[in-house]
Write a structure and sequence with these properties.
heterodimer; A: alpha/beta; five-stranded parallel beta sheet; 32% helix; 17% strand; B: 33% helix
Chain lengths: 466, 200
């Protein structure tokens, strides 16, 4: 029977399937961070259980770490305790750990691929919803809760039920200035934040084939914002080239074996999908969110919606609530929205390629005097690479703050937060109420759109700049 | 995990769509290394003003809803992050059952690991239950029979996967159940080691 790539990965990891469809799925790789793991390790200790396969597990601190000078440790007491707890847990249970001062430290979904920990055909989990990022390599990767983290640590498996297959096809080419971020925001705008619930999305078509691995990661990263269990892209030569030579990539004879296996990871021609969506690359425009859900999108040339024109009562209520929170008037042109902060970073857009694109836009220009702008590299290695290329100098000369790696203002668990009513052009993934700080107002955009907004102090059409 | 068989309580109605996990429990409370004590921070930014005072108009701040064990809400409840702190906060507040038209995947999963029953119902039934909630009617959830009684003779039926039901009814620890299959997992792992040796 013809199979999708998801079917193939699922079936090759099935330890057991019960009559009611409840299945025991084998997990190849487990990423761990400080926020969603302490209770899991505590659970293991209380039941006197061990970590089944410590070598398949990699831990890092990212959510709670400061992005300013780290020489004196972490000032926030609770954050420090959580970071220290992960260090101790990894030591006690024999798990490799990238601590605060390790140059490999960074956002969990940046370091996995960077280290070659992430590979095609794997099942990969992490106590973080943006684990879907790793699907860019043709892996089945999804976020789990802390109880499930404990389950994977103890058994190297998860109890799961099979998801349905959703094919999203984007054909043709993107216009210059339109990025992977605009593609995924447009998809979420189309299907809604619950549109992918119960599905694993496979991204197909010319647009994704032409994307770099970084761009593919941006797309897969936000699959969860469409409600999907996971999102993935079939691996190809770009995937293999990206992995080759990385510290944890297969070597020698194993590389050849792996490559042979990876080359079988594609969706068979006659495979059936439960749902399909087709879009054209040329129709996608630079995109800005105006509300408090990632589905609240507008083209840069669009306007803030008018709730009085909305017929669905629930939707109308939700638009009113969003506009009130965001401090926006109906029908305001998106390009008239002025911003106070710019955040470049996160597991969505904190990779070297993102920073290069931002540098191209801001080189020789100054950040608008009404704007505070920060660049937070996704990992220590991204930071080193950027500094090697002189990108840090470009950012600093423009007036950006150049920070240490971590999740930072994407969720504001560390001191990087918006103040009430502050408006931010953010390259992150969630614009929920309070996400970047209580009362903070988040507009999700691509790195180049955020860069241009930093210079102009408001949103502008990047296509007119490049 | 505490068993779930029957639950009788008044319900609190929170008619908001896309209630996300940042709303349920904001970031500053994720710094804990415990599972307990999060109830006072549930829906923090809707419950307390910037000075930390209770916002009177918020449903869970008012009697009798501050003792509700059932929460009724809008579509796509629990979307966003994987934080299990969200069901921990609900549980610590006293909520054992959430009823909505749909739930986000990870949150839905996380509920079952903590003895919380998430129930999916069609729109008209959710609306009817929110009306009953507003009138302070007691609602009774019977997991064994998969029925919701609301004081009339027309109980609603609801669906639940048999395995999840079994775990809730008995308060099973998933990990203990899976560890019984250790031999099977080990032989699967041996097979994988020969098929995909580069993973080990």
């Amino acid at each position: 029977m013809a199979k999708t790539i998801y079917d193939k990965i699922w079936e090759s990891h099935l330890v057991e399937e019960q009559n009611d469809g409840t299945s025991l799925l084998y997990i190849d790789r487990h990423l761990v961070h400080e926020v969603t793991s302490p209770q899991a390790f505590e659970g293991l200790r209380l039941s006197n259980r061990k970590v089944k396969l410590p070598s398949s597990t990699l831990a890092v601190v990212d959510h709670n770490v400061p992005t300013t000078d780290r020489s004196k440790g972490i000032a926030d007491k609770e954050s420090a305790i959580q970071v220290e707890a992960l260090s101790k847990n990894c030591k006690d249970f024999g798990i490799e750990f990238f601590g605060l001062t390790d140059k490999r430290q960074g956002i969990v979904h940046v370091i996995g691929p960077e280290q070659g920990f992430t590979q095609p055909g794997m099942t990969i989990v992490c106590g973080d919803s943006h684990t879907s990022t790793h699907g860019a390599f043709g892996a089945l990767a999804f976020g789990i809760g802390t109880s499930e983290v404990e389950h994977v640590l103890a058994t190297q498996t998860l109890i799961q039920s099979r998801a349905k297959n959703f094919k999203i096809n984007v054909d043709g080419r993107l216009s210059s200035g339109v990025t992977a971020k605009d593609v995924i925001l447009s998809i979420i705008g189309k299907i809604g934040t619950a549109g992918g619930t119960g599905y694993v999305i496979e991204y197909c078509g010319e647009v994704f084939r032409n994307f770099s691995m970084e761009e593919r990661m941006t797309v897969c990263n936000m699959s969860i914002e469409a409600g999907a269990r996971a999102g993935l892209i079939a691996p190809d030569q770009k995937t293999f080239d990206y992995i080759k030579g990385r510290p944890l990539a297969p070597k020698g004879e194993n590389w050849d074996k792996a490559l042979k296996y990876w080359s079988t990871l594609y969706t068979d021609e006659d495979a059936k999908f439960d749902r399909e969506l087709n879009l054209q690359g040329k129709d996608i425009e630079p995109t800005v969110t105006w509300g408090t859900s990632p589905q609240d999108i507008s083209s840069i040339n669009g306007k803030v919606p008018d709730p009085s024109l909305e017929k669905n009562e629930d939707r109308k209520k939700s638009i009113l609530r969003s506009l009130d929170y965001m401090g926006l008037e109906p029908n305001t042109p998106i390009q008239d929205i002025k911003i106070d902060k710019v955040f470049i970073g996160s597991c969505t857009n904190g990779r070297i390629e993102d920073l290069r694109e931002v540098a191209k836009i801001v080189k020789g220009k100054k950040v608008n005097k009404s704007v505070d702008a920060i660049v937070v590299p996704g990992s220590g290695l991204v930071k080193l690479q950027a500094e090697k290329e002189g990108l840090d100098k470009i950012f600093k000369e423009s007036g950006f703050d150049w920070r240490e790696p971590g999740c930072s203002m994407c969720l504001g668990m560390n001191p990087d937060q918006l103040k009430p009513k502050e408006r931010c052009a953010s390259t992150s993934n969630r614009n929920f109420e309070g996400r970047q700080g209580r009362g903070g107002r988040t507009h999700l955009v691509s790195p180049v759109m955020a860069a241009a907004a930093a210079i102009e102090g408001r949103f502008v059409d990047i296509r007119k700049i490049i | 995990m505490e068993k779930f068989t029957k639950l009788k309580s008044i319900a609190a109605d929170l008619p908001i769509t896309n209630v996300d996990t940042d709303m349920i429990i904001p970031k500053q409370f994720l710094k804990t290394i415990k599972r307990t004590g999060l109830g006072s921070a549930l829906f923090y930014e809707m419950r307390y003003d910037e000075k930390g005072a209770l916002i009177k108009s918020f449903i869970l701040n008012n009697a009798p809803y501050n003792k509700a064990k059932i929460l009724i809400s809008g579509k796509n409840f629990g979307c966003g992050s994987s934080r299990e702190h969200a069901p921990w906060a609900l549980l610590d507040f006293g909520i054992r059952c959430v009823i909505a038209e749909s739930f986000a995947d990870i949150f839905y999963n996380n509920c079952f690991k903590n003895g919380i029953l998430p129930i999916i119902l069609p729109e008209n039934q959710v609306k009817e239950l929110s009306e009953a909630a507003k009138q302070n009617k007691e609602i009774e959830i019977d997991l064994v029979d998969q029925k919701i009684h609301k004081g009339d003779n027309r109980p609603f039926d609801f669906e639940i996967e048999p395995f999840r039901k079994e775990c809730l009814l008995n308060g099973y620890d998933d990990i203990a159940l899976t560890l019984k299959k250790d031999a099977k997992i080990n032989s699967f792992e041996q097979k994988k080691k020969s098929l995909t040796p580069w993973l080990y």
